[in-house]
Amino acid sequence: MTQPSHDEQAAAKAGELAEQTGAKAGELKAKAADLVQQAQDKLPDPVKDKAAHAAEHARAAAAQAERLWEGKAPEPVRHTTAQGARLARDNRKLLLAAAGVTVVMWLACRRRKG
């Protein structure tokens, strides 16, 4: 019986690491989503309303900036930017979770100072 080559061993190890990384990412996503839900549950309604208004304003400003960008940016730069935007959209929950955790931490720090 022959032993696997170094390349085969490395490929097997890389596959194991990819599987472990995927599992850990799934755990982190679930934990982040739970933290976001907890943060949203604790926020008072006026803060939620203000955040919704700010998000709508940000969407409108982003749309305006996108129109301006499309007219002035060179094609390679637009392509790279589109890839980044696609990556952000694909990881939206994780980004929102991080933002939610940041807001909760900021609110906690404000309360301690005040």
Describe the overall structure:
The protein is mainly α and 114 residues long. It has four helices and no strands. The chain has helices at 6-42, 45-72, 75-90, 92-113. Helix 1 crosses helix 4 (92-113). The longest helix has 37 residues, at 6-42. It starts with 5 loop residues before the first helix and ends with a helix. The model has no long low-confidence stretch (mean pLDDT 81).
What brief labels describe this structure?
4 helices, 114 residues, flat, 0% strand, single chain
Short description:
The protein has helices spanning about 5-40, 45-70, 75-90, 90-114. It is mainly α and about 110 residues long.
Counted by DSSP, the helix tally is 4
Helix content: over 70%
Our estimate of the beta-strand percent is under 5%
N-to-C SSE string, H for helix and E for strand: HHHH
What is the number of E strands? 0
